[in-house]
Protein backbone atom coordinates (compact mmCIF):
# COMPACT_ATOMS: atom_id res chain seq x y z
CA UNK A 1 0.00 0.00 0.00
CA UNK A 2 1.26 3.46 -0.89
CA UNK A 3 2.12 5.89 1.90
CA UNK A 4 -0.08 8.63 0.42
CA UNK A 5 -3.07 6.29 0.34
CA UNK A 6 -2.61 5.33 3.99
CA UNK A 7 -2.33 8.97 5.03
CA UNK A 8 -5.51 9.78 3.14
CA UNK A 9 -7.38 6.81 4.61
CA UNK A 10 -6.42 7.82 8.12
CA UNK A 11 -7.48 11.42 7.58
CA UNK A 12 -10.86 10.35 6.22
CA UNK A 13 -11.63 7.47 8.58
CA UNK A 14 -10.03 8.43 11.89
CA UNK A 15 -12.58 7.72 14.61
CA UNK A 16 -13.26 11.20 15.98
CA UNK A 17 -15.04 10.00 19.13
CA UNK A 18 -11.84 8.43 20.51
CA UNK A 19 -8.94 10.57 21.66
CA UNK A 20 -6.44 10.86 24.48
CA UNK A 21 -5.17 8.03 26.66
CA UNK A 22 -8.24 7.16 28.73
CA UNK A 23 -10.17 4.65 26.60
CA UNK A 24 -12.44 2.17 28.35
CA UNK A 25 -15.60 0.13 27.76
CA UNK A 26 -17.96 3.12 27.93
CA UNK A 27 -15.79 4.93 25.36
CA UNK A 28 -16.52 2.36 22.66
CA UNK A 29 -20.08 1.30 23.53
CA UNK A 30 -21.77 3.69 21.11
CA UNK A 31 -19.40 2.58 18.34
CA UNK A 32 -20.31 -1.06 18.93
CA UNK A 33 -23.99 -0.15 18.71
CA UNK A 34 -23.50 1.80 15.48
CA UNK A 35 -25.83 0.60 12.72
CA UNK A 36 -22.88 -0.16 10.42
CA UNK A 37 -21.12 -2.29 13.01
CA UNK A 38 -23.59 -3.79 15.48
CA UNK A 39 -24.40 -6.85 13.37
CA UNK A 40 -20.71 -7.84 13.54
CA UNK A 41 -20.44 -7.46 17.33
CA UNK A 42 -20.76 -10.31 19.81
CA UNK A 43 -20.51 -10.63 23.57
CA UNK A 44 -17.83 -13.25 24.26
CA UNK A 45 -17.57 -13.19 28.05
CA UNK A 46 -17.34 -11.21 31.26
CA UNK A 47 -14.52 -9.65 33.23
CA UNK A 48 -13.85 -10.05 36.96
CA UNK A 49 -16.12 -7.06 37.63
CA UNK A 50 -18.79 -8.41 35.27
CA UNK A 51 -18.03 -6.02 32.41
CA UNK A 52 -18.88 -7.42 28.99
CA UNK A 53 -16.00 -8.34 26.70
CA UNK A 54 -16.89 -7.86 23.03
CA UNK A 55 -15.55 -9.13 19.75
CA UNK A 56 -16.05 -7.77 16.24
CA UNK A 57 -15.93 -10.17 13.29
CA UNK A 58 -15.40 -8.81 9.79
CA UNK A 59 -14.91 -10.54 6.45
CA UNK A 60 -15.53 -14.01 5.08
CA UNK A 61 -12.11 -15.02 3.79
CA UNK A 62 -10.13 -18.12 4.60
CA UNK A 63 -7.19 -16.25 6.16
CA UNK A 64 -8.21 -15.79 9.78
CA UNK A 65 -6.60 -13.06 11.88
CA UNK A 66 -7.26 -12.76 15.61
CA UNK A 67 -6.28 -9.50 17.30
CA UNK A 68 -6.80 -8.13 20.79
CA UNK A 69 -6.05 -4.80 22.43
CA UNK A 70 -5.89 -3.49 26.01
CA UNK A 71 -4.90 -6.79 27.53
CA UNK A 72 -3.15 -4.24 29.72
CA UNK A 73 -5.85 -1.72 30.56
CA UNK A 74 -3.65 1.39 30.38
CA UNK A 75 -2.35 0.62 26.88
CA UNK A 76 -5.05 2.26 24.79
CA UNK A 77 -3.33 3.59 21.65
CA UNK A 78 -3.91 0.43 19.63
CA UNK A 79 -7.60 0.45 20.57
CA UNK A 80 -7.96 3.84 18.90
CA UNK A 81 -6.09 2.53 15.85
CA UNK A 82 -8.33 -0.53 15.70
CA UNK A 83 -11.45 1.59 15.31
CA UNK A 84 -9.75 3.78 12.71
CA UNK A 85 -8.92 0.58 10.82
CA UNK A 86 -12.44 -0.81 11.23
CA UNK A 87 -13.88 2.38 9.73
CA UNK A 88 -11.81 1.74 6.61
CA UNK A 89 -12.72 -1.94 6.39
CA UNK A 90 -16.50 -1.34 6.61
CA UNK A 91 -16.29 1.54 4.12
CA UNK A 92 -16.52 1.44 0.34
CA UNK A 93 -12.77 1.98 -0.07
CA UNK A 94 -11.27 -0.29 -2.71
CA UNK A 95 -8.74 -1.71 -0.27
CA UNK A 96 -11.58 -3.02 1.89
CA UNK A 97 -12.91 -5.41 -0.72
CA UNK A 98 -9.81 -7.60 -0.97
CA UNK A 99 -9.44 -7.71 2.81
CA UNK A 100 -13.06 -8.74 3.37
CA UNK A 101 -12.94 -11.35 0.58
CA UNK A 102 -9.64 -12.91 1.61
CA UNK A 103 -9.60 -12.50 5.37
CA UNK A 104 -11.80 -12.98 8.40
CA UNK A 105 -10.87 -10.64 11.23
CA UNK A 106 -11.79 -11.40 14.82
CA UNK A 107 -11.10 -8.29 16.90
CA UNK A 108 -11.31 -7.95 20.69
CA UNK A 109 -11.02 -4.18 21.19
CA UNK A 110 -10.70 -4.25 25.00
CA UNK A 111 -9.80 -7.58 26.58
CA UNK A 112 -9.33 -6.10 30.08
CA UNK A 113 -12.25 -3.68 30.60
CA UNK A 114 -11.72 -3.49 34.37
CA UNK A 115 -8.09 -2.49 33.95
CA UNK A 116 -9.09 -0.02 31.24
CA UNK A 117 -11.63 1.63 33.54
CA UNK A 118 -9.13 1.87 36.42
CA UNK A 119 -6.32 2.77 34.00
CA UNK A 120 -4.04 0.05 35.23
CA UNK A 121 -1.96 -2.65 33.58
CA UNK A 122 -3.56 -5.39 35.68
CA UNK A 123 -7.09 -6.77 35.85
CA UNK A 124 -9.42 -6.36 38.84
CA UNK A 125 -7.68 -9.25 40.63
CA UNK A 126 -4.30 -7.52 40.16
CA UNK A 127 -3.18 -10.17 37.69
CA UNK A 128 -1.15 -9.44 34.58
CA UNK A 129 -3.15 -11.21 31.87
CA UNK A 130 -0.03 -11.45 29.76
CA UNK A 131 1.50 -13.77 32.37
CA UNK A 132 -1.58 -15.96 32.68
CA UNK A 133 -1.45 -17.89 29.41
CA UNK A 134 -0.76 -21.23 31.09
CA UNK A 135 -2.63 -20.94 34.37
CA UNK A 136 -5.69 -19.34 32.76
CA UNK A 137 -6.66 -18.25 36.25
CA UNK A 138 -8.62 -15.17 35.13
CA UNK A 139 -11.92 -14.93 33.28
CA UNK A 140 -10.40 -12.60 30.67
CA UNK A 141 -7.61 -15.10 29.97
CA UNK A 142 -10.16 -17.85 29.53
CA UNK A 143 -12.18 -15.71 27.12
CA UNK A 144 -9.16 -15.12 24.90
CA UNK A 145 -8.16 -18.79 24.92
CA UNK A 146 -11.73 -19.88 24.12
CA UNK A 147 -11.85 -17.50 21.17
CA UNK A 148 -8.45 -18.76 20.00
CA UNK A 149 -9.59 -22.38 20.21
CA UNK A 150 -12.92 -21.84 18.47
CA UNK A 151 -11.79 -19.35 15.82
CA UNK A 152 -8.59 -21.26 14.97
CA UNK A 153 -6.69 -18.24 13.64
CA UNK A 154 -3.97 -18.41 11.03
CA UNK A 155 -2.38 -15.26 12.48
CA UNK A 156 -2.48 -13.46 15.83
CA UNK A 157 -1.87 -9.77 16.50
CA UNK A 158 -1.12 -8.98 20.15
CA UNK A 159 -1.59 -5.20 20.55
CA UNK A 160 0.14 -3.25 23.34
CA UNK A 161 1.61 0.10 24.35
CA UNK A 162 5.08 0.81 25.70
CA UNK A 163 6.56 3.40 28.03
CA UNK A 164 8.57 6.46 27.01
CA UNK A 165 11.77 4.91 28.41
CA UNK A 166 12.58 2.80 25.34
CA UNK A 167 15.25 3.69 22.79
CA UNK A 168 15.98 1.99 19.48
CA UNK A 169 19.15 0.13 20.37
CA UNK A 170 21.64 2.46 22.06
CA UNK A 171 20.69 5.39 19.82
CA UNK A 172 19.14 8.74 20.65
CA UNK A 173 15.94 7.68 18.89
CA UNK A 174 12.78 6.80 20.81
CA UNK A 175 11.15 3.47 20.02
CA UNK A 176 7.98 4.95 18.56
CA UNK A 177 6.77 1.60 17.21
CA UNK A 178 8.12 -1.77 18.26
CA UNK A 179 7.43 -5.34 17.22
CA UNK A 180 8.31 -8.88 18.19
CA UNK A 181 7.94 -12.30 16.65
CA UNK A 182 7.79 -14.12 20.00
CA UNK A 183 9.87 -17.21 20.60
CA UNK A 184 8.16 -20.57 20.80
CA UNK A 185 10.84 -22.51 22.64
CA UNK A 186 13.61 -21.98 25.16
CA UNK A 187 16.26 -21.88 22.42
CA UNK A 188 14.42 -19.07 20.60
CA UNK A 189 14.58 -21.17 17.44
CA UNK A 190 13.69 -19.36 14.25
CA UNK A 191 10.86 -21.71 13.35
CA UNK A 192 8.62 -21.62 10.28
CA UNK A 193 5.90 -19.95 12.35
CA UNK A 194 8.27 -17.24 13.57
CA UNK A 195 9.63 -16.68 10.07
CA UNK A 196 6.13 -15.84 8.85
CA UNK A 197 5.63 -13.39 11.74
CA UNK A 198 9.07 -11.92 11.01
CA UNK A 199 8.23 -11.43 7.34
CA UNK A 200 5.04 -9.56 8.24
CA UNK A 201 7.02 -7.33 10.61
CA UNK A 202 9.63 -6.73 7.91
CA UNK A 203 6.95 -5.42 5.56
CA UNK A 204 5.60 -3.06 8.23
CA UNK A 205 9.12 -1.91 9.09
CA UNK A 206 9.88 -1.05 5.45
CA UNK A 207 6.80 1.16 5.33
CA UNK A 208 7.34 2.82 8.70
CA UNK A 209 10.96 3.71 7.94
CA UNK A 210 9.56 6.19 5.40
CA UNK A 211 7.74 8.05 8.18
CA UNK A 212 9.83 7.55 11.31
CA UNK A 213 13.31 6.51 10.16
CA UNK A 214 15.35 4.79 12.90
CA UNK A 215 12.41 4.82 15.32
CA UNK A 216 11.32 1.18 14.98
CA UNK A 217 12.64 -1.43 17.36
CA UNK A 218 12.08 -5.01 18.41
CA UNK A 219 11.84 -6.57 21.84
CA UNK A 220 14.06 -9.20 23.38
CA UNK A 221 12.68 -12.60 22.38
CA UNK A 222 13.48 -14.43 25.64
CA UNK A 223 10.96 -17.24 25.90
CA UNK A 224 8.22 -17.21 28.55
CA UNK A 225 5.40 -19.67 28.02
CA UNK A 226 3.26 -17.73 30.50
CA UNK A 227 3.07 -14.91 27.95
CA UNK A 228 0.18 -15.15 25.52
CA UNK A 229 2.26 -14.43 22.41
CA UNK A 230 4.79 -17.12 23.26
CA UNK A 231 2.01 -19.62 23.95
CA UNK A 232 0.20 -18.97 20.68
CA UNK A 233 3.47 -19.02 18.74
CA UNK A 234 4.32 -22.33 20.40
CA UNK A 235 1.09 -23.67 18.91
CA UNK A 236 2.50 -22.82 15.47
CA UNK A 237 0.26 -19.82 14.88
CA UNK A 238 2.35 -16.90 13.54
CA UNK A 239 1.99 -14.23 16.21
CA UNK A 240 3.06 -10.58 16.04
CA UNK A 241 3.46 -8.30 19.03
CA UNK A 242 2.69 -4.63 18.28
CA UNK A 243 3.90 -1.96 20.72
CA UNK A 244 2.78 1.67 20.45
CA UNK A 245 5.50 3.95 21.83
CA UNK A 246 6.55 7.57 22.09
CA UNK A 247 6.81 10.17 19.34
CA UNK A 248 8.19 13.63 20.16
CA UNK A 249 5.69 15.68 22.21
CA UNK A 250 2.99 13.07 21.56
CA UNK A 251 2.05 12.03 25.08
CA UNK A 252 -1.56 11.54 23.99
CA UNK A 253 -0.22 9.11 21.38
CA UNK A 254 -2.17 10.56 18.45
CA UNK A 255 0.77 10.46 16.03
CA UNK A 256 1.60 6.95 17.22
CA UNK A 257 -2.05 6.05 16.73
CA UNK A 258 -1.73 6.92 13.05
CA UNK A 259 1.44 4.84 12.75
CA UNK A 260 -0.29 1.86 14.37
CA UNK A 261 -3.19 2.32 11.94
CA UNK A 262 -0.67 2.19 9.07
CA UNK A 263 0.94 -0.91 10.56
CA UNK A 264 -2.32 -2.79 10.98
CA UNK A 265 -3.58 -2.05 7.49
CA UNK A 266 -0.20 -2.84 5.93
CA UNK A 267 -0.06 -6.19 7.73
CA UNK A 268 -3.65 -7.20 6.94
CA UNK A 269 -3.39 -6.10 3.32
CA UNK A 270 -0.14 -8.05 2.95
CA UNK A 271 -1.75 -11.16 4.39
CA UNK A 272 -4.85 -10.77 2.23
CA UNK A 273 -2.88 -10.62 -1.02
CA UNK A 274 -0.02 -13.02 -0.45
CA UNK A 275 0.85 -16.59 0.39
CA UNK A 276 3.37 -15.81 3.10
CA UNK A 277 6.12 -18.41 3.33
CA UNK A 278 8.48 -16.68 5.72
CA UNK A 279 11.31 -16.85 3.18
CA UNK A 280 11.77 -13.07 3.36
CA UNK A 281 12.21 -12.87 7.12
CA UNK A 282 15.86 -11.84 7.24
CA UNK A 283 15.23 -8.06 7.26
CA UNK A 284 13.60 -8.53 10.67
CA UNK A 285 16.93 -9.62 12.11
CA UNK A 286 18.43 -6.22 11.24
CA UNK A 287 15.91 -4.24 13.32
CA UNK A 288 17.65 -2.95 16.48
CA UNK A 289 16.59 -4.30 19.84
CA UNK A 290 15.06 -1.83 22.29
CA UNK A 291 16.96 -0.57 25.29
CA UNK A 292 15.80 1.52 28.26
CA UNK A 293 17.83 4.70 27.72
CA UNK A 294 15.26 7.52 27.89
CA UNK A 295 13.91 9.74 30.62
CA UNK A 296 11.09 12.17 30.00
CA UNK A 297 13.28 15.00 31.34
CA UNK A 298 16.94 15.20 32.33
CA UNK A 299 18.30 18.23 34.17
CA UNK A 300 21.99 18.40 33.28
CA UNK A 301 24.95 20.52 34.36
CA UNK A 302 23.75 20.83 37.94
CA UNK A 303 26.08 21.57 40.84
CA UNK A 304 25.90 17.85 41.59
CA UNK A 305 24.49 14.88 39.68
CA UNK A 306 22.12 14.79 36.73
CA UNK A 307 18.43 14.50 37.56
CA UNK A 308 16.19 12.10 35.64
CA UNK A 309 12.43 12.66 35.69
CA UNK A 310 9.68 10.34 34.50
CA UNK A 311 6.01 11.11 34.18
CA UNK A 312 3.66 8.99 36.25
CA UNK A 313 0.36 8.50 34.43
CA UNK A 314 -2.43 8.89 36.96
CA UNK A 315 -6.18 8.76 36.51
CA UNK A 316 -7.74 11.76 38.23
CA UNK A 317 -11.46 12.03 37.72
CA UNK A 318 -11.99 11.06 34.11
CA UNK A 319 -8.69 12.15 32.64
CA UNK A 320 -5.07 11.07 32.71
CA UNK A 321 -2.60 13.41 34.35
CA UNK A 322 1.16 13.21 33.82
CA UNK A 323 2.86 13.73 37.17
CA UNK A 324 6.59 14.55 37.11
CA UNK A 325 8.51 12.24 39.46
CA UNK A 326 12.21 12.42 40.34
CA UNK A 327 13.28 8.97 39.20
CA UNK A 328 17.09 9.08 39.40
CA UNK A 329 19.80 11.43 40.70
CA UNK A 330 23.06 10.16 39.24
CA UNK A 331 25.45 10.45 36.32
CA UNK A 332 23.03 10.14 33.38
CA UNK A 333 25.54 10.95 30.64
CA UNK A 334 24.78 7.66 28.88
CA UNK A 335 21.02 8.37 28.85
CA UNK A 336 18.81 10.50 26.63
CA UNK A 337 15.79 12.67 27.35
CA UNK A 338 12.68 13.77 25.53
CA UNK A 339 13.37 17.20 27.08
CA UNK A 340 16.51 18.62 28.67
CA UNK A 341 17.02 21.47 31.12
CA UNK A 342 20.46 23.05 31.56
CA UNK A 343 21.09 24.05 35.19
CA UNK A 344 24.30 25.93 34.21
CA UNK A 345 26.16 24.71 37.28
CA UNK A 346 23.51 25.71 39.82
CA UNK A 347 21.79 23.70 42.52
CA UNK A 348 18.37 22.27 41.74
CA UNK A 349 15.88 22.73 44.59
CA UNK A 350 12.16 22.50 45.20
CA UNK A 351 10.25 25.80 44.85
CA UNK A 352 10.42 25.99 48.66
CA UNK A 353 14.20 25.92 48.54
CA UNK A 354 14.60 22.40 49.97
CA UNK A 355 16.75 19.69 48.34
CA UNK A 356 15.03 17.39 45.89
CA UNK A 357 15.29 13.64 46.27
CA UNK A 358 14.43 10.50 44.36
CA UNK A 359 10.75 9.64 44.60
CA UNK A 360 9.61 13.26 44.92
CA UNK A 361 6.76 14.44 42.72
CA UNK A 362 7.43 18.04 41.74
CA UNK A 363 5.62 20.19 39.21
CA UNK A 364 8.41 22.78 39.43
CA UNK A 365 12.07 22.99 40.38
CA UNK A 366 14.02 26.07 41.34
CA UNK A 367 17.34 26.79 39.63
CA UNK A 368 19.20 29.97 40.56
CA UNK A 369 16.01 31.39 42.11
CA UNK A 370 14.03 30.77 38.91
CA UNK A 371 11.18 28.27 38.75
CA UNK A 372 11.18 25.79 35.89
CA UNK A 373 7.98 23.87 35.13
CA UNK A 374 8.32 20.10 34.75
CA UNK A 375 4.70 19.76 33.70
CA UNK A 376 3.75 18.80 30.19
CA UNK A 377 2.66 21.59 27.97
CA UNK A 378 -1.03 21.33 27.20
CA UNK A 379 -1.61 18.17 25.15
UniProtKB/TrEMBL annotation:
Stretches assigned to the Peptidase M14 domain: 11-271
InterPro entries xrefs: Peptidase_M14 (IPR000834)
Classification via Pfam families: Peptidase_M14
Alphabetical list of Gene3D superfamilies matching this protein: Zn peptidases
Family per similarity comment: Belongs to the peptidase M14 family.
Protein name: M14 family metallopeptidase
Organism lineage string: Bacteria, Pseudomonadati, Bacteroidota, Flavobacteriia, Flavobacteriales
Amino acid sequence: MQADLLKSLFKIHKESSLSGRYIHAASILDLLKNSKLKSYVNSIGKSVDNETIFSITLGTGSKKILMWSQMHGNESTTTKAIFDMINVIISTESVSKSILENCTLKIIPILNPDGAKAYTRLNANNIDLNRDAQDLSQPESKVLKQVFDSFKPNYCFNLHGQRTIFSVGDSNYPATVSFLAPAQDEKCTITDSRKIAMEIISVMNTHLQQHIPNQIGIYDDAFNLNCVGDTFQSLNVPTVLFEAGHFANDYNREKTRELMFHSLLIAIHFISGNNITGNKYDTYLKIPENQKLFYDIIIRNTSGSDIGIQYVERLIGKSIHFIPKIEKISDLSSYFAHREINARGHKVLTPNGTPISEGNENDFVSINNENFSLKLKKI
